[in-house]
Amino acid sequence: MKKRTLLSILVMLIAISGYSQTARLQVIHNSPTPTVDVYANADLLLNDFAFRTATPFIDVPAGVEINLGIATGNSSSASDAIANFPVILEENKTYVVIANGIVGGNPGFGLDIFDMGMENSDAAENVGILFFHGSPDAPTVDVLAGGAVLIDDASYGDFAGYLNVPAASYDLDITPGNDNATVVASYTADLSFWGGNTAVIFASGFLSGDDPAFEPWVALSTGGTFPLQAVTTGPGPDPSTTARLQVIHNSPTPTVDVYANGSMLLDDFAFRTATPFIDVPAGVELDLGVALGTSTSAADALVNFPVTLEAGKTYVVVANGIVGGNPGFGLDIFDMGMETADADGNVGILFFHGSPDAPTVDVMTGGNVLIDDASYGDFAGYLNVPAASYDLDITPGSDNQTIVASYAADLSFWAGKTAVIFASGFLSGDDPAFEPWVALSNGGTFPLPAIGPRPDGTDLFAQSSISTKGLEQVSLFPNPVSNNFVNVVLDFETETNLDYQLMDANGSVVRSQNFGKIAEGFNQIELSLYDVKAGIYFATFYTDDEVITKMISVIK
After folding, report:
1. Predicted pLDDT of residue 202
2. In 3D, which of 135, 100, 130, 133 has the Cα closest to residue 115?
3. What is the DSSP letter of 425?
4. Could you give the C-alpha distances from 534 to 13, 123, 404, 549, in angstroms and in order?
């Protein structure tokens, strides 16, 4: 059961419920408890859902009661739930749900629900920011920018906003609700890359200094999360004595603590999360100790790694492998890291092969090899390419005709910056299952959505070869789409059965249709996008033995 995908469970839930009504939902995990499983009625909805991670907005059944059961991450069925929450969602509404509070503590664990969620801001140049106060022991606060009050008198459990503001970088000051002259802490919120979209800024952790410590975090509408950076005063670090470092957790093990020379470096560091690039001491040996997330000191470390970093250099470190398993747990280090691309309009992509049982692979787009012969533990690149959306095909390293899987990588929003695409999980289907993930240079992470299989369940990507003789000439116009329709032009040598599926950038199916038999020769089909929101979509066309995907940009 625990190997089912989120999309397959949602489709099944909708079918079982007998309802065609749906709502949109994002879930954010802000309860400082162990990694959890979330069940919808008897079925697994979210597997190994970690603290300070989020889902993208997804379709869920509306108009029918759904029992949301919360269990610890090692659960085997919905009967293991330690808390249950019956909810009924309203058709066509958009919700943000935050798991908050303390299991078995005070304030108690619960779900805070905001029923006026938004996936898009009010203008392409703006970002829509929803604020949530989720720090159990923090008092009522105000949030200021440039001396102006953005959030007024937010208490624990409160949502505030949306604020639609220009997509930019802001220094945010946190003050007591009744004293704006006393700045408790200041943070930089860089959302300059997120124009046209929305994000949730949520206060997290304990202000008292208890574990986990207080931090404001961001959850993007695509599901990526990252912490806001504290504003520091005085001179910056000396580059002659420091290096820059990003750490990515890609070992399918419990949440861990990381110590550096006896001091806590990373607290409650979860699988498939990342740090931003940070300053660390260089020129001296660092003893990096990795302990379980429940550790109390560096003495609890399960494994230690002595490393010496070079001053002025930038590193990407991936925690990889299996604790107590094969291949064993270790740190893979790339010492030519980059935080910015080579041009403002490009994105710099570093690829890392971190799937323990996956063979040597190539990564292709548009028939061109981007990554050649990457084996487990290998880094490849940086590739500096235009910041755009790409269809990535994964093939065996020795056979570029066999497409094992295809994924949509939308990095159009990350111009001028860098990202790591890392293969994660087990290709065999063991838990956790294989997925490619992205770690942005600011610490945000999210999975790449898969493209395919056919609507009838036939997995064309498992075939030894895929012909594109008929579909290779398919074209779409206008594209970008500014009205409600897009035209598809096809030319077939013989009469052909044709299916179509439209997926959004998160992998959710928003349209599907069978056109039946399409006549031999030139054909033009008009597709309706009447109630499709602005954004990037992937139109996949299927015949009996062919498949091709085209990107559609909707800008209405």
Report:
1. 95
2. 130
3. S
4. 27, 11, 30, 19
Same domain for 493 and 364:
no
On whether both 298 and 330 belong to a single domain, the answer is yes
CATH number at residue 494: 2.60.40.1930
Structure tokens at 127: 């970002």
Count other Cβ atoms within 10 Å, centred on residue 324. Answer: 10
Strand order in the sheet with 314-320: 278-281, 242-249, 314-320, 330-334
Identity of residue 305: F
The string of pLDDT tens digits covering residues 431-484 is 777 889 999 998 888 888 877 543 344 333 333 223 334 676 677 777 677 777
> Which tokens hold the place of 32?
């400082």
DSSP three-state, residue 513: strand
Domain termination site, one of 337, 357, 392 = 337
Residues 246, 208 within the same domain:
no
Number of domains in the chain: 4
What's the average model confidence in pLDDT over 204-209? 82
Look up the domain containing 242 and give its range.
Answer: 236-337
> 176 and 73: one domain?
yes
Element (DSSP H or E) covering residue 9: helix 6-17
Structure tokens at 51: 């603290």
Nearest alpha carbon to residue 278 among 322, 237, 336, 319: 237
Q: Is the pLDDT of residue 7 over 70?
A: no
Residues 420, 316 contacting (CB under 8 angstroms): yes
